[in-house]
Amino acid sequence: MSRIVAGAAGGLRLRSVPGQGTRPTTDRVKEALFARLESWNMLAGAAVADLYAGSGALGCEAASRGAAEVALVERHGPAARVCRDNAALVHRALGRDDVVTVHRGSVETYLADPAEGPWDLVLADPPYPLGERELTAVLARLSGRLRPGGVVVVERSARSPEPRWPAGLRRFAHARHGETATWFAEADEAPAGDTAGTPPAGTGTHDDAY
C-alpha cells in the first residue's frame, strides 16, 4: 500500500492495484520528484494529467500538494477502479470532490480528445513493456498542448534509452534513482539550431540531474 507523502492529505494511505500490469512509483522516487516540482512552483493551482495512472498515486500526490485539477488516465479495469477509490479518499481528505477525475481508457484515446488540456504538468509513467515508438507517439500528442511553463515528466526503467522527444518538446533535466530514471521536458520555443536545455519559464537555473 502506498501513501501520499506531503501536502493537505499527507500521510493518507492509498489503495494499491491488485495483481500485475502496473508498476507503482516508490515513495523515495515520488518524494524526490515532487520536491523538485515544488521547487519550480509547478503544483499550486496546476492542471495535471497523470497518464498510465495505475493506482493514481502520482496524481493524488499532486492534488494533495495544491493542484487545482487532476486527470487520472488508466485503461486497465481493476486499476481504474482503484483510481476511483483513491480519488474518493483524497476528496474526503481535502474536503472537496472536484479535484481528481478518472478517465477509463487508453492514453491515446484521452489525448486524441481536443477538449482535454492544456496542462501545466503531465506525468507519464508507462509500464516498462511499452515500446519506445509508442511512447514517442504519445509524447508527440502532447506537443503544443502545455500551458506556458508547462512540464512533461516521463518515468522509465534506468535501463531504457532516453525518450525520443518530438518536435515541440525539449528535455531539460534528468534524474536517476536506482532502477528508475525520470526525464523532464518543456515546450521547445528555442530558435532553430538552439539546442541548449533550459528550465521552465520563471523557475530559474537548475542542474541537469540530481
From TrEMBL:
Pfam families: Cons_hypoth95. PROSITE patterns: N6_MTASE. CDD domains: AdoMet_MTases. GO terms for biological process: rRNA methylation. The keyword Nucleotidyltransferase does not apply. Keywords: Methyltransferase, Transferase. GO terms for molecular function: methyltransferase activity; nucleic acid binding. InterPro entries: DNA_methylase_N6_adenine_CS, RNA_MeTrfase_RsmD, SAM-dependent_MTases_sf. Coiled coil: none annotated. Residues 185-210 are annotated as: Disordered. The keyword Isomerase does not apply. Residues 192-204 have a biased composition (Low complexity). This is Methyltransferase. It comes from Kocuria flava.
